[in-house]
Amino acid sequence: MLFFAALFFAEPMPLDMPRAEAYLVRDSDGTSRLEDRFSDLDLWTSRTILGRWFDDSGRLFTVARLSELAPGKDVSFMTRAKYVHGAVQLGKKDESARLDSIRLLSPLDLPEEPSKPRNPIRGFDSVLYYHGTNTSSVVAAFIPEESPVWYLAVWDLAEGDVFDDCLEVFEDEFLSKWGEIKKKNLVSELGFKSEKRKAKKKRARDDERELLRADARHSITNYPSWRAIDSNEFTILENLPHESAFMTELTNSLFVARARYGAVMPSPLDGSNVLALARIFKNRSEYLDSLGVNGVEGMEWSAAYWSAARREIVAYLPPGGEKELLKTFRHEAFHQYFSYACSMIAASPWINEGYAQYFEDEESFNWKCDVDLEAFAEMIPALMAMDYEQFYSGSDIERHIKYRLAWSIAYFLEKGAHKVLREPFKNVKRDYIASLLKNHDMQKATADAFGSEENFKRFVAEWRKFWRATSGD
Q1: Strand partners, 100
Q2: What percent of the chain stands above pLDDT 90?
């Protein structure tokens, strides 16, 4: 059964980061920056739920702290700072507002009247059940003695469970031991009370970065197997076997890589509000479970991905171990950087995947001399017009060819384009990003980056000449 022992042994389910909507804004000082906004419901939910755990039989246990007034029916989109500054404390005697919160978190329709435990439970001012006559979930709101807020526990049961037996376990193994659970910090709370005071001392852009960091840490705060590693520009959440030396290497590598991204692919946007967030699972099974949560079905073949909507890199420790994970991180971290650099506007896969491959393989030359350069050159126009569905489609071999061809384009831009007479491709990257920010169109951005069809044809010809010389043909 779940509960007291399960808080040690059950599998934690990391909380979802809110889904972001990107806005490009211009500040009074003339700088432009990305501003993330979220639905007030997503922000409220991410801050209200303290943790979720599931067991091998499929039971799911959720604990929430009902401390902030739930949003209304009309969805509003706002920055984290605006939400925090406007958050209203939920009074412990406000029954109507409490019911609104429970409705948002309960998997069941609430009964007209709650019920109470058969016997009083020590340590609580009140315990109320909202599961009605159903036998699939236990839904309980409770307020400990001297607590300023109510809590909610939802236990979704497994098929075949006897409801009355489960209710008895819930009371004996969770509610009756709440004091011990809190004492041992098995269900702890992130301190949001000082946010308003601290936020006033910071610029809004800095405020957003730190609030995102706080939300990220909150998503794992009740999971002893998970850890958070912070630096000024990033936070990494991980449940790997504890290897401090590796995490030091990873964080140092990420710091160096982000500096390289900015030098090679400079952005016209102010990125001082950006936080590079990453989540690393200890195995592939947990990683695959995250695909559905983040809405990236169809990428089961991947080793990692950049979840643009939730603003986090998601990866796992692969069979190749730490060295392979470092390589994967250099790739995905570029996607993260470039997404922010382009205000979350989708960039063409030829430049996005090409440069991700370039930074992944930057220290090693990996172009086979036996490739058919003429056939590859003929593929370039089609490749550079592809969207992501087209780029990711096909067999593993076909995807590999597209990735390597995109890499060869990035490699040529960095290692060979500056040697072409009069440097006709000098501003390709700059002009691509400028067009993308203006027009939100990846195909037009490619066309604008090269300026004319004639110049694009010359680019293909110079690419062919460069690789023929490099390959020794």
Answers
A1: none
A2: 63
